[in-house]
Structures are given as structure tokens and as C-alpha cells.
Specification:
The complex is a heterodimer of chains A (about 200) and B (about 575). Chain A is elongated. In chain A, strand 6 and strand 7 form a beta hairpin. Chain A folds into two domains: about 80 residues, Alpha-Beta Plaits; about 70 residues, 2-Layer Sandwich (Alpha-Beta Plaits), CATH 3.30.70. With about 200 residues, chain A is α+β, with helices and mostly antiparallel strands. The longest helix of chain A has 13 residues. Chain A contains seven helices and nine strands; from the N terminus they run βαββαββααββαββαα. The relative contact order of chain A is 0.18. Chain B folds into three domains: about 190 residues, Thiamin diphosphate (ThDP)-binding fold, Pyr/PP domains (Rossmann fold), CATH 3.40.50.970; about 160 residues, TPP-binding domain (Rossmann fold); about 170 residues, 3-Layer(aba) Sandwich (Rossmann fold), CATH 3.40.50. In chain B, about 35% of the residues lie in helices and about 15% in strands. In chain B, helix 4 crosses helix 19. Classes of the chains: A alpha+beta (about 200), B alpha/beta (about 575). At the A-B interface, helix 1, helix 2, helix 6 and helix 7 of A face strand 6, helix 10 and strand 14 of B. Chain A: Keywords: Amino-acid biosynthesis, Branched-chain amino acid biosynthesis, Transferase. Chain A: Belongs to the acetolactate synthase small subunit family.
Chain lengths: ~200, ~575
């Protein structure tokens, strides 16, 4: 099975120590976390982790079940890049004298959808958001002008097919039993299971 | 009241109001003990120290309601709590202080985690304002124990204690059980607060221990079973944890399916049951291993396809359809892909399945197990149980023990050759009778676990069986046995080697015996030092009398039995081989 980029979305209680509990599930399996973002969700008191990894689907499926099994975790799922809308944010610090003199700043901003957040005599900070490749393109474009600092955020992602967490939460609070985390691929494939 | 108001324990103790049931002001420590009483805890294990002293001080006034067993080492305490949980079916409880007390629990937590033992561990912690300052006996217990606990939580404010303990007991015992650790800072133990009583927990929104049972999967499973010519059941501890022994028996009896067990499932089905075909795995029986690769439908119930059970996965059960019943969704498809997953508590799913399966008996198929059993008897078992050489075998010890107990004893084993022999040959009439460290394989488990097992089932005979290596890891618990008059019978099967490792070195490392030659103290003199009766046996003619003396003795007894130095456990599935490549010699 081929490794590819996946986005894992985890809804959790807002609990001290949970970041570690999640992080060690990756390190125990020697899975490198490409990026990790944690933030509030649409529901008060519920946190949302967005974790990007490069892995096979099989490993991901097992890992996500293990994550969802943790007591303080409400829901964990994984998506391919096609299944999510995602963005990262980056900041670039460049020396103002150089950039003002040598670069066609206006073209840069336009071409890369960037904004100037701060302009001082000594440096300027640009900001852009987008997919990694877009961010990297601006990085490459700014490098010749004496890039002083660069930082990129973790990915944030919205799942295209998701209707949010409100309904699920209601279900959980009403003491509904849980559906299994993933459909079994054989369900509904009577033929396949029954030909022995 | 702020948590930092009281930092001087002396002041706090002076201000303490003696606890009575009408009091609504309690200290955090008293709230912990009230939680135990409300949860029905009567016996627990522990070891005091600086950071847990307020709880121990409160315990002084609860001595008539709570039976605290002072162990000799915190590892002993947690193994005892595990043994207690295993024979009683209830939550085991253990106390330890911060720092070294807490780190001494880690092996037991890992053991309980992998073997799904319901435990609540309470550790003391330094004052909240000292957290992160490298204070005396401060360790980051929460982070150290995160991978080996089902849930853990640090309490820094006493008002949290009733709800947190209620959660702890609920999480430990529901769904797939596991160990929970609650770390309580000293200020929270001392802090007084308005106690509003204890409300047991029965719901946590982020925790869903019981998956929804899907009818269509049960129907598919039944259909597969009804079509099968050679169905085969593998069962694990899930049957015991689900208290589903009767439901399990009803299912296999109606469908007439031969059933084999993992060592964690051992004793869920009586040894004598006609459908019990024996043990799975590396040192399991010949038939169940070979026929795993010949059945047409494999029904796994409350077991997790551990590598010691499956051998090489790409040579495991490739020819059959697989039905997997488990309460833990993360176990489905983890090691073996299930064709039909039946999520749920087997206490619930098994009766549904039983309703839908046809009455059956797979006589010819069952006969194949019996035939292979016969082959194994001839090649291995007969000689193990009836040796002609002068030296005693571990197998014959088990044979005589079975004859004397009739299969009614609780058998607690350590880890190694004696463990495999005991699991292979011990006879069991009732469930919750086999206590062993299955998943972690923790040497030193047997003696402390037996202490707990005895408190968990005081009316039963509890026999611990350990090797000369493992017993030396936790032999200090003889002190606990002495002090609390715990009627544990300890058999040390002494082969003067770290036997299991020696066996591997013989078979796979050209007999290069590297540091497996272990010397022992005079175990009987050690026992006597603890005022425990005992004797050593090295001749066959004395074996039965010695075992009988041990069993008849009123109280604890240590019996050291000298056995063959270089005997091996067979059959064996060598590492890296498939189950059908099992070797009889
Ligand atoms: C704590 C721990 N350390 C090491 C091991 C590795 N190990 C497994 S079996 C074994 C030998 C056990 O020897 P003994 O207790 O004498 O029992 P025997 O195999 O001889 O019956 C060892 C060292 C282990 N399982 N647990």
C-alpha cells in the first residue's frame, strides 16, 4: 500500500495532558507528525486537533481507532487531501531596504496572494496562506532578497462532507451507544463473504 | 478555599474534624475513602510515604471499614490488586506515594493494561505549588503512566475528588477494562471542602464503552457458521471479563463447535468439557494449532490475535472466513482482517448468535482434534506426565496437583517454562481460576498476584507456581503473607536455570548458555525466616505426600520441587513460523 498525505481530525475534551496522550500514539508507532494544530472547535469546550501525516491507509485506519478509543476523545477520523479544504499560514521577514530596492514588491504580493503585515525601516513581514506548495513558492521567491526569518503554521482543515459536530455530540450526550469507527468493507457484500 | 491556603500539613491535621457519616465537611483524603466505600471496595493494597500521608492518616479512622494490606514493594501491591481483580471480577485498588512509589507501579500498570485488568491506582503527589520544581520525590507520574493507563488524571483540588473517583471506577470496569491512575497532590488530600455525597458515574460523553450491536453482522456471522463444515472457536479473556461463560457455553454447545483457548481465556470453559480442545499458541496443543489452518470458519471471541497465538501472520488462517467478536473496535482488523466483525459485549452478542445458529455437531471434525490430541499424547504428554527418568518433570507435578485439588484451585503462575506447563496441564472446573501475566509476561507476577487472588476469593485454594528465577524477583512478598496470614500455597519449580531462556538458547543459539544459570538461596530457610512452613522435594515417592501436606496445611506453605534441569516445553511453534509448523519435539 502506498503512503500518502492524510489529515486526521480529532475532537476532544479540553483536558490537560491530552496532547501528550495523542502525541505518544504516533511516536510509539514511529510515525512522524508532519504538522499539528490544536484549536477550539465550533462547540464551546470541545477542542479540535488537526494532524497531518504521511502514511498508508491501513496504518491510518488502525491508528485512528486507537486514538478514538482514548477516554477523553470524542471522535477521530482521517481524510485524504481531496476530502478536505485545507490551508496553512506563513510569515516571512525580509530586509526592507533590499526588498524595496530590488524586488517588484507589488508583483510579488499579487502573484502569491500575500499581504504585508508590517513594514518598518529595517524589515518587512509578509503573510500568506494556502497549500504548502504555494507557501514554498513565495519562500523561494523571497530567498534571494535576504530572507531573515520564515515560519509556517500547522495545517487547518475542514472536511468537505462533514456537517459539523453538533449532532454527534447530542448523540453522545444522550447516551447513545457508539457506532463502530469504520464501516467494514464486507458489509453489504453478501456474495463476497458467502462464497467460500 | 484556594488550594494553596493550606500548605502546612500540621495546621491542617490540627484543624481536621473527625469524619462521621453526617459530616458534610470532609478532607480530600476522607473523600477518597468515602468513594471506596461507596464503590464497594473492602480490601486494597498499598504502601505509604510522604506525599500520601494525609490519606494514610485518614485511613487510620477507617480501619474498621477498609482492609488495607501493607505490601513489601509497590510492584507487589499492584500485582496483588491485579490478582484480586482476576479472581473477584471486581476493581482492584492500590495506593502508592509519589516519586519512587509511583514509578514502582509502572510494570504492573503495563501488565494490567495489556491484560485488561480493572484497577484504580491512587498515587500521592507533592503540593500543587511544587509541581515542576524538582521537589523531593516529585516525578511526572501522569506523563510516565500515560501509555500504560486506560485513563489517568491529576487532582489538585479536593472538590474534584468525588467526581474524579467515580469516573475512575466507571472507566476501569466498563467496556474493555483497564488500569486507571489518579494522582492527588498533597494539598488536595488535606484540603477540606463541603462534601455533597458520592454519585457513581454511569456516563461520560467522550467515552462509549459499549458499541452498538449490529444485527446484520450477527446474521452474517450466523449464516457463515450454519454453512460451515469445519468451524472452530478461539476464545480469550473477553468471555471472562464479560461474565459470559454461560452464554459462551450455550453457543458452542448448540452449534457443536470445537473450542480452543488463549492463556487469558483459560478456565472460562471447564477442562473436561467435550468441546474444549485445548490451548492455542506457541506452546499450545498440537490439534488447535494445526487445525487453525484447516478450518473453514474461525470464530474468535474476546481475544486479540496476539503474536504468541498466531505465529507468522502470513501463514495464519488464510483458508477460512473469520468472524471476530470483540468489545473493543480497535481490535477488529488490527492483526487479522475479519470477514464479519461483531462489535459488542459478548454477553450480549453471543445469545443473539446462539438464537440464529442451527443445532449441530461436527463429529468428524471434532474427531480430528481428538486424533491429533492422541498424537500429542504419544509424542509429548505421556512422557511429561509419566516420566521414566529419575528426575521430576513439571508436568507430573501438575498431574498430581490436579488429582489432589480435583481442579477446584485457583492457579497463579509466573512467567517461563513452568507457566506454559501449568497452563497446558492444570485442570479447571470453574472460571476466573487461572491468573497469569499473559500479554506482558512479567516475571515476579505470581507471588504478589496470588496474595491478591486469595483476598479476591478467600474461600478458594490459591496455588502460586513460580520458577526459581521469577520467585526471586518478588520474594519479599512472603513478608505480606506472613503479616496478614494469607493462605497462599507457593510451589517453586526449581530447574536451576532461567529455563525458558535456556530452552531458546539450546534450540536456537547452539546451546550457548549465556547467563541463564541462576543460583538460589535455600528457599525453605527463607520461608522459615518469614515463619512460613515449607519443605523441599526431589524424589518422586515424596511428591504426592508433600503436595498433600501443602494443601492440607492451615495457612501459607512453600514447597520447592527440584525438577529436571534441561527439560523443554513442547510442542512449540518456533518464532517466525506458522502455526501449522508446530514442532512436537
Ligand atoms: C521481568 C522479566 N525479565 C525478564 C524476562 C525474560 N524471561 C522470560 S522467561 C525467563 C526465564 C524464567 O526463569 P524461571 O523463573 O526460572 O522459570 P522457568 O522458565 O525456569 O520455569 C526470562 C528471564 C521476563 N519475562 N520478565
Amino acid at each position: 500500500m502506498q503512503k500518502q498525505e492524510y489529515t486526521i481530525t480529532v475532537y476532544t475534551e479540553n483536558q490537560v495532558g491530552l496532547l501528550n496522550r495523542i502525541a505518544i500514539m504516533f511516536s510509539r508507532r514511529k510515525i512522524n507528525i508532519e504538522s499539528l494544530n490544536t484549536s477550539p472547535s465550533e462547540i464551546d469546550g470541545i477542542h479540535r486537533f488537526t494532524i497531518v501525516v504521511n502514511e498508508t491507509e491501513d496504518v491510518l485506519r488502525k491508528l485512528v481507532r486507537q486514538i478514538e478509543k482514548q477516554v477523553d476523545i470524542l471522535k477521530a477520523e482521517f481524510s485524504t487531501n481531496e476530502e478536505v479544504i485545507y490551508q496553512e499560514l506563513a510569515l516571512y521577514k525580509v530586509p526592507t531596504p533590499v526588498i524595496a530596492e530590488k524586488a517588484k514588491v507589488e508583483r510579488l504580493l499579487r502573484e502569491y496572494g500575500a499581504r504585508a503585515v508590517v513594514i518598518r525601516m529595517d524589515y518587512t513581514v509578509f503573510e500568506t496562506s494556502g497549500h504548502r506548495e504555494e507557501i514554498n513558492k513565495l519562500l523561494a521567491a523571497l530567498e534571494p532578497y535576504g530572507l531573515m526569518e520564515f515560519v509556517r503554521s500547522g495545517r487547518v482543515a475542514i472536511i468537505k462532507a462533514s456537517t459539523g459536530f453538533h449532532d454527534k455530540l447530542k448523540e453522545f450526550e444522550q447516551r447513545e451507544r457508539s457506532e463502530e469507527v469504520a464501516e467494514n468493507e464486507y458489509l453489504g457484500q453478501q456474495e463476497k463473504v458467502f462464497t467460500m | 478555599m484556594s488550594t494553596l491556603d493550606i500548605v502546612n500539613p500540621k495546621e491542617a491535621v490540627a484543624a481536621a474534624i473527625p469524619a462521621t457519616t453526617n459530616n458534610t465537611v470532609l478532607s480530600g483524603s476522607e473523600a477518597v475513602l468515602e468513594a471506596f466505600i461507596a464503590e464497594g471496595v473492602h480490601t486494597f493494597f498499598g504502601y505509604p510515604g510522604g506525599a500520601i500521608m494525609p490519606i494514610y492518616d485518614a485511613l487510620y479512622d477507617y480501619r474498621d471499614k477498609l482492609n488495607h494490606i501493607l505490601v513489601r514493594h509497590e510492584q507487589g501491591g499492584i500485582h496483588a490488586a491485579q490478582g484480586f481483580a482476576r479472581t473477584s471480577g471486581e476493581v482492584g485498588v492500590v495506593f502508592a506515594t509519589s516519586g519512587p512509589g509511583a514509578t514502582n507501579l509502572v510494570t504492573g500498570l503495563a501488565d494490567a493494561m495489556i491484560d485488561s485488568n480493572p484497577l484504580v491506582c491512587i498515587t500521592g503527589q507533592v503540593f500543587a505549588h511544587l509541581l515542576g520544581t524538582d521537589a523531593f520525590q516529585e516525578t511526572d507520574v501522569i506523563n510516565i503512566t500515560t501509555p500504560v493507563t486506560k485513563w489517568n488524571y491529576q487532582v489538585t483540588d479536593a472538590t474534584e475528588i468525588p467526581a474524579v473517583l467515580a469516573k475512575a471506577f466507571y472507566i476501569a470496569r466498563t467496556g474493555r477494562p483497564g488500569p486507571v491512575l489518579i494522582d492527588i497532590t498533597k494539598n488536595a488530600q488535606i484540603q477540606k471542602f463541603d462534601y455533597e455525597g458520592y454519585t457513581p458515574c454511569n456516563h461520560i460523553r467522550s467515552y462509549r464503552p459499549y458499541p452498538k450491536v449490529r444485527k446484520e453482522y450477527v446474521e452474517q456471522a450466523a449464516a457463515l457458521i450454519n454453512e460451515a463444515k469445519r468451524p472452530f472457536v478461539l476464545f480469550g479473556q473477553g468471555v471472562i471479563l464479560g461474565k459470559a461463560e454461560a452464554e459462551f457455553k450455550a453457543f458452542i454447545e448448540k452449534a457443536g463447535i470445537p473450542s480452543a483457548w488463549t492463556i487469558m481465556g483459560l478456565s472460562a470453559l471447564p477442562t473436561d468439557h467435550p468441546l474444549n480442545v485445548g490451548m492455542l499458541g506457541m506452546h499450545g496443543n498440537y490439534g488447535p494449532n494445526v487445525l487453525t489452518n484447516e478450518c473453514d470458519v474461525l470464530i474468535a471471541i474476546g481475544m486479540r490475535f496476539d503474536d504468541r497465538v498466531t505465529g507468522r501472520l502470513d501463514k495464519y488462517a488464510k483458508q477460512c472466513k473469520i468472524i471476530h467478536l470483540d468489545i473493543d473496535p480497535a481490535e477488529i482488523d488490527k492483526n487479522i482482517k475479519a470477514d464479519v466483525p461483531v462489535w459488542g459485549d459478548c454477553k450480549e452478542t453471543l445469545p443473539l448468535l446462539t438464537q440464529l445458529v442451527n443445532k449441530g455437531n461436527h463429529k468428524e471434525w471434532l474427531q480430528r482434534f481428538r486424533d491429533m490430541q492422541q498424537q500429542e499424547v504419544e509424542a509429548v504428554i505421556h512422557d511429561e506426565l509419566n516420566p521414566t527418568s529419575e528426575v521430576l518433570t513439571m508436568g507430573e507435578v501438575l498431574k498430581v496437583l490436579n488429582e489432589l485439588t480435583g481442579g477446584d484451585a485457583v492457579i497463579v503462575t509466573d512467567v517461563g517454562q513452568h507457566q506454559m506447563i501449568a497452563c497446558r496441564y492444570a485442570k479447571f472446573n470453574q472460571s476466573k481460576s487461572n491468573v497469569t501475566s499473559g500479554g506482558l509476561g512479567t516475571m515476579g507476577f505470581a507471588l504478589p498476584a496470588a496474595v491478591g487472588a486469595k483476598f479476591g476469593a478467600p474461600e478458594r485454594t490459591v496455588v502460586a507456581i513460580a520458577g526459581d528465577g521469577g520467585i526471586q524477583m518478588t520474594i519479599q512478598e512472603l513478608g505480606t503473607i506472613m503479616q496478614f496470614n494469607v493462605g497462599v500455597k507457593l510451589i517453586i519449580l526449581n530447574n536451576q536455570f532461567l529455563g525458558m531462556v535456556r530452552q531458546w538458547q539450546q534450540l536456537f543459539n547452539d546451546k550457548r548458555y549465556s547467563f541463564v544459570d541462576i543460583t538460589s538461596p535455600d528457599f525453605i530457610a527463607v520461608a522459615k525466616g518469614y515463619h512460613i512452613e515449607g519443605q523441599r522435594v526431589d524424589a518422586r515417592e515424596n511428591l504426592r505426600t508433600a503436595l498433600k501436606t501443602m494443601l492440607d496445611h492451615d495457612g501459607a506453605y512453600v514447597l520447592e520441587i527440584m525438577v529436571g534441569k534441561e527439560n523443554n516445553v513442547f510442542p512449540m511453534v518456533p518464532q517466525g513460523c506458522g502455526v501449522s509448523e508446530i514442532r512436537l519435539k
